[in-house]
């Protein structure tokens, strides 16, 4: 028998060995394809989500270990009690963030809570009730320096040490990562949970101009947490070295809800819930129901629009306000909005809470300019031409005699009235369904323009760029904005330098081709000129080194290089330059637009998957891993899927009855 040859290594000489995957339970756990097993149940709401549920509860933060570092009080070093030291750490971490450190509200709330955490007879609590003197007399810099040194120490750990810490953390979390449940099929499933960790304590940062920013967010303990389990499931003990003798606030057995536990936020008094992970059947069914409801709306939207347009022309002011509000929710994809206690929450605005100060009118063009803070204090600024009836209705509501800038435009309509109107036309219809519908239908319509835009279908890069442009239109419609990354300018500068380096290489090859047609004297002159240009171009500047910009480097053109070889290099560089320019354009266009929010929450994922299949684009080029994990049911859709159900489809037939 001939000797078997050794299989050559796939790792190149000197290359890094492939990381070995340690196989765990998840590699052998069967995938829960609930959409195949109970397709119809996935499309309708059920009263019971499980017949058995078991999990280990939540993971709590470890007990604080004091570092004992002193800070300066009136020029003298002073060591704080452990509880106050922990809060001082939170403030020290803010010293490099002027948006928080210098914010008046942030400082007021921190000053109040820091004094409250000190013992009643502590000299700082007694003497520093004046806020300005407090920040003048207390210097947290020594604590900041210590925290930074600890951060640097952890950053400088060896790769092996970091891996060991990560592995230890994962092993500690492993028992809390999954739940056992029977969703009513007679078999137990092992479903991944969302992050089981409670929030870490710290200073509440909020968004925008939240009135509670800087408030101390206290540590969550087991007695704050309520768990949801089966009656016959074992109740887990709170685990942790500081939790002995503590018990849960309550244990309930409610199969009609999908949450596994909750606790009350100590700052905003809102409830925070623990759910199953995004890939779970419970989450998947909820998502499918949401998008199916939006598809159902696509079959009824014409009648609803006809109805609210009739209300817009009504003689009754209340009906005109209701019709106009629904028009704005539909046409501009606005959130419904509602009244807020501005002492407890940021003053953010939706359709029903628009005030006179948020609107300005141009009667010549029938355009309205809306300028207000929307959800998460993101500014909504839009000038748009409205339907003539809607424009004059809004103008009359805003200019009602006696109204001031701070008064509501829709003073006779609230979110409840809007949603009641919508639900009268379709069961379960709300303003949020309109946002989902508008996002999904806009994406599908934009993607249908691929022929009109003359996209090169042989280039995956061009198709992906076209998809991102369509995604951006949806994000703009839904006002999904983000602040440009702090590193955006530096990143663009590096990309620009890389482009210039490629163009320099291209220029060198073109000059080489020119030199082939020159005589000896011309070539000598040309050589001196090119050498001078090369020296100037390739001299590394200190500024470039500091910014870590790619240095210019001429390509190696040997005496044996032929014209056809140079032409091949030129063609390859042209392709690389064109591709690089598209990357730069894409990055610049999307710097202030959040494409991920609409992908994750508003655009029906089946529209994207069907598009990818039609044009043979790998789905990972359009959907990040988190979205592929969240929407496994959408991955099996046909390439001819349409968000608007065709006339002969089951959904269209059921809604026509």
TrEMBL record:
* One Gene Ontology term of the molecular function aspect: DNA topoisomerase type I (single strand cut, ATP-independent) activity
Q: Which residues form a coiled coil?
A: 485-590
GO cellular component terms listed in the entry, alphabetical order = chromosome; nucleolus
Residues annotated as domain DNA topoisomerase I eukaryotic-type: 203-616
Name the UniProt key words of this record, in alphabetical order: Coiled coil, DNA-binding, Isomerase, Topoisomerase
Keyword Electron transport appears in the UniProt entry: no
Q: Which reaction does it catalyse?
A: ATP-independent breakage of single-stranded DNA, followed by passage and rejoining
Protein name as it appears in the record: DNA topoisomerase 1
Species per Swiss-Prot/TrEMBL record: Chromera velia CCMP2878
Q: What is the lineage of its organism?
A: Eukaryota, Sar, Alveolata, Colpodellida, Chromeraceae
């Amino acid at each position: 028998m001939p000797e078997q040859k050794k299989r050559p290594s796939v790792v190149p000489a000197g290359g890094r060995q492939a990381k070995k995957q340690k196989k765990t339970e998840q590699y052998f756990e069967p995938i829960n394809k609930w959409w195949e097993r109970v397709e119809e149940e996935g499309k309708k709401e059920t009263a019971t989500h499980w017949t058995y549920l078991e999990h280990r509860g939540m993971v709590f933060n470890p007990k604080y270990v004091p570092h004992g570092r002193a800070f300066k009080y009136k020029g003298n070093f002073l060591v704080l009690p452990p509880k106050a030291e922990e809060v001082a750490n939170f403030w020290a971490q803010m010293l490099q963030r002027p948006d928080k450190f210098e914010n008046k509200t942030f400082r007021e709330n921190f000053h109040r809570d820091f004094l409250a955490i000190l013992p009643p007879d502590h000299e700082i609590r007694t003497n520093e009730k004046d806020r300005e003197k407090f920040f003048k007399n207390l210097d947290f810099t020594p604590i900041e320096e210590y925290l930074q040194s600890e951060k640097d120490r952890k950053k400088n750990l060896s790769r092996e040490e970091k891996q060991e810490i990560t592995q230890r953390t994962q092993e500690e979390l492993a028992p809390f990562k999954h739940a056992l449940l029977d969703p009513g099929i007679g078999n137990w499933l092992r479903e991944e949970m969302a992050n089981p960790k409670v929030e870490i304590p710290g200073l509440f940062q909020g968004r925008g101009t939240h009135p509670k920013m800087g408030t101390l967010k206290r540590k969550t303990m087991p007695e704050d947490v309520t768990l949801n389990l089966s009656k016959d499931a074992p109740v887990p003990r709170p685990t942790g070295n500081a939790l002995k003798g503590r018990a849960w606030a309550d244990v309930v057995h409610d199969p009609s809800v999908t949450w596994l536990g909750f606790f009350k936020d100590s700052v905003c008094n809102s409830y925070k819930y623990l759910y199953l992970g995004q890939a779970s059947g419970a989450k998947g069914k909820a998502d499918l129901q949401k998008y199916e409801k939006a598809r159902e709306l696509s079959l009824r939207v014409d009648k609803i629009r006809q109805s609210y347009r009739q209300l817009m022309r009504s003689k009754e002011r209340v009906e005109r306000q209701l019709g106009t509000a629904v028009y704005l929710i539909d046409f501009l994809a606005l959130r419904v909005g509602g009244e807020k206690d501005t002492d407890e929450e940021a003053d953010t605005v939706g359709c029903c809470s628009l005030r006179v100060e948020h609107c300005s009118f141009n009667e010549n063009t029938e355009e309205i300019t809306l300028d207000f803070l929307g959800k998460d204090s993101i500014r909504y600024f839009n000038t748009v031409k409205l339907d003539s009836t809607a424009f004059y209705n809004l103008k009359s509501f805003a200019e009602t005699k006696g109204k001031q800038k701070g008064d509501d435009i829709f003073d006779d309509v609230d979110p409840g009235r809007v949603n009641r109107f919508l639900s009268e036309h379709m069961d379960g219809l709300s303003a949020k369904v309109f946002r989902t519908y508008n996002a999904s239908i806009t994406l599908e319509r934009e993607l249908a323009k691929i022929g009109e835009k003359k996209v090169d279908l042989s280039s995956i890069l061009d198709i992906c760029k076209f998809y991102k442009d369509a995604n951006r239109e949806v994000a703009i419609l839904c006002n999904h904005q983000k602040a440009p990354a702090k590193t955006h300018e530096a990143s663009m500068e590096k990309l620009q330098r890389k482009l210039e380096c490629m163009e320099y290489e291209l220029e060198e090859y073109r000059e080489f081709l020119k030199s082939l047609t020159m005589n000896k004297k011309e070539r000598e002159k040309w050589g001196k000129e090119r050498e001078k240009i090369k020296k100037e171009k390739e001299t590394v500047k200190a500024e470039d080194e500091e910014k870590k910009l790619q240095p210019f480097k001429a390509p190696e053109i040997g005496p044996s290089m032929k014209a056809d070889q140079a032409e091949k290099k030129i063609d390859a560089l042209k392709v690389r330059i064109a591709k690089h320019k598209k990357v730069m354009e894409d990055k610049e266009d999307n710097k202030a637009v959040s494409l991920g929010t609409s992908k994750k929450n508003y655009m029906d994922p089946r529209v994207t998957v069907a598009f990818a299949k039609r044009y043979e684009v790998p789905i990972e080029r359009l959907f990040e891993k988190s979205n592929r994990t969240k929407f496994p049911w959408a991955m099996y859709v046909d390439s001819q899927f349409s968000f608007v159900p065709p006339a002969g489809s089951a959904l269209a037939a059921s809604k026509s009855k």
